[in-house]
């Protein structure tokens, strides 16, 4: 069969696509000019959510919605880069799960800055050295990332978006399986792949490394060595993946927040979530029914709670604050009324942000 006529048609479509993409990006650049003038945020979570929903609703195939979303992620990433060279701070080193989450949310066209601690990420965004930060907040098997939650007590940054990332590990090595005598990784990652390693590499020595990314560098350089690390580390360091998805539990997912200075607007349609920090005060929190009293202003107005976590205030012994995730946007009249009521008896009701539910 002569493929040339079909390829000529593809060439013609590519010409149109490039022209359309540049037209779309020029409009984004104009929007960027306006935003720079008005001081509006460059990344707009609620608008991106609407774009993703619009294009997947328009899609009649054969392209899969996941593929369409990935393409649009990169189109919007390129649009953002034309508006302003954004810097996204995440918990490094490079090629960690946090790096993968940052790339999934912001695409390949923005700049990334790996930092050492959660406090460093908050400070970088507060000082404007980074525009947004990516913070892991809870894992489906390990629970809340408490150090990350605690940052919101002292910071005035807002949660502007969230995303879920399935955490998976690969066995990474330039050597074939039968040559591997040592497996390097961070102890938590080795623990999450313990059964697989016992079954497939029963004689290999398991060695703790400072990070999964560093383990891949060792595997690249040391004969007989392999690493357990996220797939992004194999790509990043150019070392082959021998096997994907070697973690013992399927559906191991981490929820991440995007933090920034400007709050996100509502998307509506029951697709908004809001987070609060609430303190009842040390006296009141010891009264019977204190927690129920705190939840009543919300539940009475049909506002559902999807997460509650108590954390020590670190001011007084046995004094707590509560971290809450609820449905709806802070601007909803019902939410405003609930907050007003809560403020009549809670010394602290801190709004941490409203954001679209993860796609
Ligand atoms: C173009 C805009 O800026 C960014 C790019 C978007 C896009 O390419 O569609 C959407 C939202 C923003 O993150 C906008 O705010 O509309």
Automatic annotation (TrEMBL):
Keyword field: Amino-acid biosynthesis, Aromatic amino acid biosynthesis, Cytoplasm, Isomerase, Lyase, Multifunctional enzyme, Phenylalanine biosynthesis
Gene Ontology CC entries for this record: cytoplasm
Record pathway: Metabolic intermediate biosynthesis; prephenate biosynthesis; prephenate from chorismate: step 1/1; Amino-acid biosynthesis; L-phenylalanine biosynthesis; phenylpyruvate from prephenate: step 1/1
Annotated ranges, domain Prephenate dehydratase: 87-261
E.C. number: 4.2.1.51, 5.4.99.5
Compartment list: Cytoplasm
Transmembrane residue ranges: none
Domain Chorismate mutase: 1-87
Biological process annotations from GO: chorismate metabolic process; L-phenylalanine biosynthetic process
UniProt site positions, description: Essential for prephenate dehydratase activity: 254
Sequence ranges assigned to domain ACT in this UniProt record: 279-356
Catalytic activity of the protein: chorismate = prephenate; prephenate + H(+) = 3-phenylpyruvate + CO2 + H2O
GO MF term (any one): prephenate dehydratase activity
Coiled coil, from the record: none
Domain of life assignment: Bacteria
Protein's job: Catalyzes the Claisen rearrangement of chorismate to prephenate and the decarboxylation/dehydration of prephenate to phenylpyruvate.
UniProt name for this protein: Bifunctional chorismate mutase/prephenate dehydratase
Organism the protein comes from: Termitidicoccus mucosus
Organism lineage string: Bacteria, Pseudomonadati, Verrucomicrobiota, Opitutia, Opitutales
């Amino acid at each position: 069969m002569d493929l040339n006529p079909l390829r000529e048609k593809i060439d013609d479509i590519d010409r149109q696509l490039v022209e359309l993409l540049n037209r779309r990006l020029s409009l984004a650049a104009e929007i960027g000019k306006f935003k720079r003038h008005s001081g509006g945020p460059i990344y707009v979570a609620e608008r991106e959510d609407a774009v993703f929903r619009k294009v997947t609703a328009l899609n009649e195939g054969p392209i899969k919605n996941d593929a369409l979303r990935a393409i649009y992620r990169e189109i919007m990433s390129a649009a953002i880069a034309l508006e302003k060279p954004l810097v996204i701070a995440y918990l490094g080193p490079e090629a960690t799960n946090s790096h993968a989450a940052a790339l999934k949310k912001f695409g390949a066209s923005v700049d990334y800055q790996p930092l050492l601690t959660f406090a460093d990420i908050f400070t970088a965004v507060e000082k404007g050295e980074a525009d947004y930060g990516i913070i892991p907040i809870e894992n489906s098997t390990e629970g809340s990332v408490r150090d990350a939650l605690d940052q919101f007590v002292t910071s005035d940054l807002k949660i502007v978006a969230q995303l879920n990332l399935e955490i998976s590990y690969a066995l990474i090595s330039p050597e074939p399986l039968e040559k591997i005598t040592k497996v390097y990784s961070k102890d938590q990652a080795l623990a999450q792949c313990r059964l697989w390693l016992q079954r497939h590499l029963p004689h290999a020595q398991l060695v703790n490394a400072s990070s999964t990314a560093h383990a891949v560098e060792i595997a690249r350089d040391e004969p007989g060595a392999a690493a357990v690390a996220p797939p992004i580390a194999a790509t990043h360091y150019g070392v082959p993946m021998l096997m994907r998805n070697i973690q013992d539990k399927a559906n191991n997912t981490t929820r991440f927040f995007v933090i920034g200075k400007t709050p996100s607007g509502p998307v509506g349609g029951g697709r908004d979530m809001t987070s609060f920090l609430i303190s009842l005060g040390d006296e009141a929190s010891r009264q019977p029914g204190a927690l129920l009293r705190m939840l009543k202003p919300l539940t009475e107005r049909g506002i559902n709670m999807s997460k509650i976590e108590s954390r020590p205030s670190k001011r007084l012994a046995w004094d707590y604050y509560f971290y809450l995730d609820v449905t709806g946007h802070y601007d909803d009249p019902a939410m405003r009324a609930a907050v007003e009521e809560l403020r009549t008896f809670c010394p602290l009701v801190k709004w941490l942000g409203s954001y679209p539910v993860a796609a």
